[in-house]
Write a structure and sequence with these properties.
Residues 40-59 are annotated as: Disordered. This is HTH HARE-type domain-containing protein. It comes from Bradyrhizobium iriomotense. Helix 2 crosses helix 3 (68-74), helix 3 (68-74) packs across helix 4 (80-94) and helix 4 packs across helix 5 (102-110). The chain has one domain. The chain is built from 8 helices and 7 strands. It is α+β, with helices and mostly antiparallel strands. The strands form 3 sheets. The chain has a 3-stranded antiparallel beta sheet. A two-stranded antiparallel sheet has the order 1-2. A hairpin with a 2-residue loop joins strand 6 and strand 7.
Length: 161
Amino acid sequence: MTAKLRIKAKGIEIEWEGEVEFLKSEVPDLIASIIEAIGSGAPEEPDETGEGATNALNGASATGRFTTASAAAKLQARSASDLFKAALLKLQMSDGVEPASLSQIHDEMKLAPRVYKPSMHKNLSQTIGSLMDQDEINEPSTGSFVLSHPTYEQLAQRLKS
């Protein structure tokens, strides 16, 4: 089965036609890369002070939504720990899910196919243990996780830079 996609942004037009699997697995990362490279061009929304509050990933308001793939790209995630934190950040910051279940986090991790490897699923217990030992995540209830406050702040700041 084939699919078609056309993107127009800031004078650039990209047209693609191909297999649906490629559309599902690779195009979200491609779009994130394009947005990062050219910016969204969205006007800044004023915050309570009247100044524009922007989201580092796409120029949307600070409460704007973003994908795990775009967060992983911006944070330069390379390991299971990096991707776990990017997925958890996306759930907390973009989706407002706090705490997030292990299955929600794993599902988000799979949405960053440039980084995700099936072996990451097998090693999630080790990844979680390591992140908890380093105080990067907390487990407020069994099987549910949140980023620690310092980790959340650090990753949010990295997205803005």
